[in-house]
Amino acid sequence: MSRIETRFADLKQRGRKALIPFITAGDPAKDITVTLMHILVQSGADLLELGVPFSDPMADGPVIQHASERALVNGTSLKDVLAMVAEFRKKDNDTPVILMGYLNPIEALGYAEFADLASQAGVDGALTVDLPPEEGQELVAALQQQGLDTIYLLAPTSTAERIQRIADMASGFLYYVSLKGVTGAGNLDLSEVRQRLDSIRRHTGLPLGVGFGINSPEIAAEVSTFADAVVVGSAIVKRIAEYESSPDVIMKELQTFVGALRQAMDTAAVNDKQTCGGQG
Predict the structure, then answer these.
(1) C-alpha distances in angstroms, 223 versus 14, 17, 98, 144, 220?
(2) Quick check: 266 and 273 in contact, CB under 8 A?
(3) Considering the entire predicted model, what is its pTM?
């Protein structure tokens, strides 16, 4: 079993939902990323999503676009990101780390080389935003050869046929984009998201994560009642940007916010269990 599969199995056994925070590697500085990764775990993260900076992050809203810009100004490359994961692994060999980014840096390195280096560094999976499943066989094969999971996005507009195609290629978990548009945009219709997840579950037994638009403990808690994982990105990256010149403040802000997300999700799980028990 991969780290991702193991983590989700453990969480399911404990009646707990996964909290997956996102940060951009190299933002606000290269030398703070590993420290922030450890703080996220200490504050309640179950898996980590680490953004690989890219000059044209088309799926991301302004908050994460600016994070990529800051990281690129700092000279953060894909190999730097892999080095950060390797450094993180010196103290944490259990928390799954997923790289989220775009195809160009991976293509420049080469699929087999990327998969090999990622595996050596301790990466567990990759989510390549702009690689459709129809064109993903080569990268998926390279990742599978190294025992790495391929995470795919599903959209509100995904048809049943496309959901099945993606589910057949994906491993680890599936990431449902809860909004039409870019990261950090719009307001969630949670009843619609719940219905979509019910539909997706007819096509796969993989855990389902939900991201985009989750910006408060209250929303995270509600989403966690019907999703297997809650992904929070822009709300975290925004806090990093607000205090980019004060690393100590960033650390405290992330501890407070991620801790609140975790507590709200755990409380929702307890309440849901009591409600189900009462109905039994």
Answers:
(1) 18, 10, 21, 30, 5
(2) no
(3) 0.94
pLDDT of residue 120: 98
Burial of residue 138 (CB within 10 Å: 0-12, 13-18, 19+) is exposed
Q: Among 52, 51, 53, 49, which Cα is nearest to 69's?
A: 53
Phi and psi at 130, nearest 5°, equal -100, 25
Return d(Cα 68, Cα 63) in angstroms, integer: 9
Catalytic residues: 49, 60
pLDDT value of residue 186: 52
pLDDT, position 277: 58
pLDDT, tens digit (0-9, with 9 covering 90-100), for 127-159: 999 999 899 999 999 999 999 999 999 999 999
Residues of the chain with pLDDT under 50: 182, 184-185, 280
Which string of b and e fits 203-242 if b means at least 16 CB within 10 Å?
Answer: bbebbbbbbbbbbebebbbbbbebbbbbbbbbbbbbbbbe
Per the DSSP assignment, residues forming a β-bridge with 23 are 50
The CA distance from 125 to 144, in Å, is 10
Residue in 22, 17, 7 with CA at minimum distance from that of residue 266: 17
Residue type at 50 in one-letter notation: L
Question: Hey, what domains does the chain have and what are their CATH numbers?
Answer: 3-279 (3.20.20.70)
